[in-house]
Amino acid sequence: MDRAGKCRSVLPRCALLLSFVAGVVAAAAPVSNDPAQLIKRAESIEPSSHAEFNELMRRLDEAATRLSPQQKLHWRYLHARQIAFAGNFDAALPPLTAIADQTADPVLAFRADANVIDLLVAESRYEEAFARLDPLLGQLPKMKEHDVRMQGLGVAAQLYNEASQYDASIRYADQIVKESTDAKNACRGWFYKSAALFGSGSAQLPADQLHDGAEACGKAGDTLFSLSYRYLLASFDMRHGRPDLAIRLLQANYPKVLRAGFPPQISEFEATLARAYRMEGDLVSAAKFAKSALATNINRPYSESTAIAYQVLYQADKKAGDGTGALANLEKYVVAEGGYQSRLSAKALAYQIVKQKVLAKKLQIEGLDKKNRILTLQGELDRKAAETSRLSVMLLLLVLASIAVWTYRIKRSQLRFMKLARRDGLTGIFNRQHFVSSAEQQLRYCSKSGREASLVLIDLDHFKEVNDSHGHDVGDHVLKRAVATCKAHLRSMDVFGRLGGEEFGILLPECDLDQVMSRVEQMRAAIATVSVGKDVSDVAISASFGVSTVTCSGYDLRQLMKDADNALYRAKREGRNRVYLFERPPVQPNLV
């Protein structure tokens, strides 16, 4: 099942919260008990510097009665950041939102608003986060304080990255690099820029960007951003098929990450180490780091690192022949992966919805303005002549018609974006989440009407060798050609989806066993005769098929997938490029 791991985005999901905790770290020096000095020092350090930050907050708490109203506002702001860094986002959001929306201090309001955006994303409230981003960026030109500008630019760079708007993310990241006056902020900008490049699908960094980013993050020391940049370099190694280099880099920095104590970052290191060790064949180390990632992620059940950890444990149990453990971890992986994919789709969809709402509001205002101007003109023309009045009415109708056309176009765009959220970006067929939903719906219909149905699992043979020998571009071409070949043998009612990597699923409703086996055999033979292309004609393509039926496995999708996976495993074991049907052994009668 690591086939899904090769194509997933391993961009650090804790990066957005890193912008929340990042600050300009001043040199450690004794601070007097003057409240103004204590507040200034507390605002200038990372809350991840637990001992110093907590000591400053303790001293501020003792001086609470001596604080001015403005200082008390800063004190509340610092308390909210302390609560959020501890992971209690629900408790931190209300006070930060109140400060952002109500304070007259523009700098403090800007900082609090940037923090609110970060926490809204952490709470999966993406539409609210994007709705607050545009007003925040509107305030950015007024912000002259260097660290405040860095915070605002960082929020924009990372949030656009989360919405897959990589060009916009790179623009803000370049601005961070350009305006940075120290290695820490330069590292931050290079991290965002490299993360955008990774998210866009690149397998490696340009040489000059790699050099400048590594140099800046090296000078920055072991900050959260510099550690995340090294994690990103390891992710590029994984994407390029170099798990040994990824292990070396991650292991060298793992103790530093543990000392930093930021749970999302720790879990990403552990989950990626688990996947890299699994690729290297060291299942003991893989299982150890997978379990550590799950323990770290106890409050983050739908994160990417949680899904990777369950996937690795499933593969390890399956390799060890522990069917019960493998099935349990497979079910947990499906749930975690589904939740994570839903969050990805929600982010992209929220960005488009907010964008469309802004456009719709703009058009509405323009339409109302035009309507008001036309009504004024109509009044003037009424006083002059009835003929001119009729012309005004025609112009008004034309404007209203144009507004209706724009409204229709906006609605159609929203529907199109919702459709894209259900599709696999590479092949165009259903993604795992929508395949599972559609297949379960079809099975309920077949169950009620007593109709037959079969589930087919498809896995391309030796796909890792294709990627390793010819590169990911050729691998992507192989996947698209295989999908196109299968679609030629499917009906409109059949449900076809990509489950991950080079593994696909097909639900064939209202189709008896002979028809199913005939069509599956046709697909297998067609894939085996596919030519990848003139430039790589030496690439041999074949696939193994596992088939389960409702007659044998019942109408429960999980049972059908389990039995089809067993049949697929047998097809692989028996030599690949073949079709196997899952059949339960007959029940032996009891002999008295």
Summarize this structure briefly.
With 592 residues, the chain is mostly helical. It is 71% helix and 5% strand.
Could you walk me through the main structural features you see in this protein, from its secondary elements to its overall organization?
The protein is globular and about 80 Å long. By secondary structure, it is mostly helical. The longest helix has 62 residues, at 323-384. Helices cover 71% and strands 5% of the residues. It has three domains: 1-217, Tetratricopeptide repeat domain (Serine Threonine Protein Phosphatase 5, Tetratricopeptide repeat, Alpha Horseshoe), CATH 1.25.40; 343-420; 432-581, Alpha-Beta Plaits (2-Layer Sandwich), CATH 3.30.70. The protein has a five-stranded mixed beta sheet with strand order 2-3-1-4-5, sandwiched between helices. The model is unreliable at 1-13 and 23-28 (pLDDT under 50). Helix 3 (35-44) runs parallel beside helix 5, helix 9 (146-162) packs parallel to helix 11 and helix 15 runs parallel beside helix 17 (304-320). The two termini are 45 Å apart. It is an enzyme of class 2 (transferase). InterPro entries: Diguanylate_Cyclase, GGDEF_dom, Nucleotide_cyclase, Rev_trsase/Diguanyl_cyclase, TPR-like_helical_dom_sf. Its EC number is 2.7.7.65. Residues 1-27 form the signal peptide. The chain crosses the membrane at residues 391-410.
What brief labels describe this structure?
592 residues; mainly alpha; Serine Threonine Protein Phosphatase 5, Tetratricopeptide repeat; Alpha-Beta Plaits; 3 domains; five-stranded mixed beta sheet; 71% helix; globular
